[in-house]
Design a protein that fits this description.
Blueprint (H helix, E strand, L loop, with lengths): L1 E4 L9 E4 L6 H18 L5 E3 L12 E5 L3 H4 L7 H16 L2 E4 L2 H10 L7 E3 L16 H9 L6 E3 L9 H11 L5 E4 L12 H7 L6 E5 L3 H8 L1
Parallel strand pairs: 3-4, 4-5, 5-6, 7-8, 8-9
Antiparallel strand pairs: 1-2
């Protein structure tokens, strides 16, 4: 699937956003290694940007890849099974064949150079930007909606993001317990337990004696995220 967009300030440029037609791992892999390059070629694109660590093995269109992190390559517990490791090896080859790489942080840039063995002049750190929706001024009725929907009243600490092992939310809960902070810690996201990759955060909060002060919000709608930040 492809959708043409024209961001503000880029009047002379044409942007084509391509995404897989179907779901599942096979569709994802076929899209990454075949369909996306064909879409770029058919569109006559000058540049193909792959916004995550899943680049094609080769492309006739100049390719830039954004690497958010390489935890799956440097943390033993996250390396996964044989198929995951095979996928990562293909991603490494694709990244090395890309024309240029972007990294979210200094640490990721160093990992790209060290782990992927990419020359330093072939990668540049570019911080992620904040969408214009994220402004400090609240909308009318926003606080009341958050109270009704999530039970949040007054000030709180907020965590949004993955709840899997690589995010280390377990340490966040333990640090919160030791900090003496009295405002609630609100954790957004659907919790999963019983898996090696997803720690039981409620059990951690209970063991640390802060279960009554940690609020698990569950799945948060996209439209509520800006309100929660505000």
């Amino acid at each position: 699937n492809a959708e043409t967009v024209r961001p503000e300030g880029f009047d002379r440029c044409k942007f084509l956003v391509a995404q897989p037609k179907g779901g599942g791992r096979l569709a994802k892999v076929l899209f990454e290694y075949s369909a996306v390059t064909k879409a770029a070629q058919q569109a006559g694109a000058d540049l193909l940007h792959v916004p995550y660590f899943g680049p094609p093995l080769g492309s006739s269109v100049a390719t830039v890849v954004t690497v958010h992190d390489l935890l799956q390559l440097v943390v033993p517990a996250l390396k996964g099974g044989p198929l995951t490791r095979l996928y990562n090896q293909f991603a490494i080859i694709g990244a090395r064949h890309a024309d240029f790489l972007l990294a979210d942080s200094d640490h990721t840039q160093r990992d790209v150079e060290r782990v992927l063995r990419v020359p330093s002049d072939h990668v540049q750190r570019v911080y992620l930007a904040c969408d214009g929706r994220y402004i400090p001024e609240p909308e009318p009725g926003e606080r009341e909606r958050l109270t009704d929907r999530y039970g949040l009243q007054g000030d709180y600490l907020l965590y949004t993001g993955g709840l899997d092992l690589r995010k280390n939310v377990t340490t966040l809960v333990r640090a919160y317990a030791q900090s003496g902070v009295t405002v609630p810690l609100a954790i957004a996201g659907a919790t999963r337990s019983g898996s090696r990759q997803f720690p039981d955060l409620q059990a951690v909060a209970r063991a640390e004696g802060v279960l009554d002060r940690v609020q698990f919000l569950g799945w948060v709608e996209e439209g509520d995220k800006t309100a929660l930040y505000r």
